[in-house]
Design goal:
two-stranded antiparallel ribbon; 6 strands; about 25% helix; Macrophage_inhib_fac_CS; acetylation; 2 helices; D-dopachrome decarboxylase; about 120 residues
Length: about 120
């Protein structure tokens, strides 16, 4: 059950229509998970600084069970997420940061329990 959170200082009007849905489909493909399990949040217009500059930028947080737990996995994921984000947001790769967090099944609650028991 991946969680993908995109924060950007770009105003909502500069984001492409359907960005959350497109990011959901891309994350499902990149992480090898069904789109029905991917959760996406997009937050725009935030006060942000990346690399000391408040110029247009974005930060992506990707957390999931089992698919973001190694440098090798995340190197592959990073390249593909950068391709998606630079195309969708019109930002250079130097203005985007991606953070990967591995999760354990007991850290995600769903249907009144945790994923461990589902």
């Amino acid at each position: 059950m991946p969680f993908v959170e995109l924060d950007t200082n770009l105003p909502a009007g500069r984001l492409p229509p359907g960005l959350a849905q497109d990011l959901c489909a891309a994350a499902a493909d990149i992480l090898g998970k069904p789109a029905e399990r991917v959760n996406v949040t997009v937050r725009s217009g935030l006060p942000m600084v990346v690399a000391g500059s408040g110029e247009p930028c974005a930060q992506l947080l990707v957390s999931s069970i089992g698919v973001v737990g190694s440098a090798e996995q995340n190197q592959r994921h990073s390249a593909r997420f950068f391709d998606v984000l630079t195309a969708q947001l019109g930002l250079g790769p130097e203005r985007i940061i991606i953070r990967f967090y591995p999760l354990e099944p007991w850290q995600i609650g769903k249907n009144r329990t945790v994923m461990t028991f589902l």
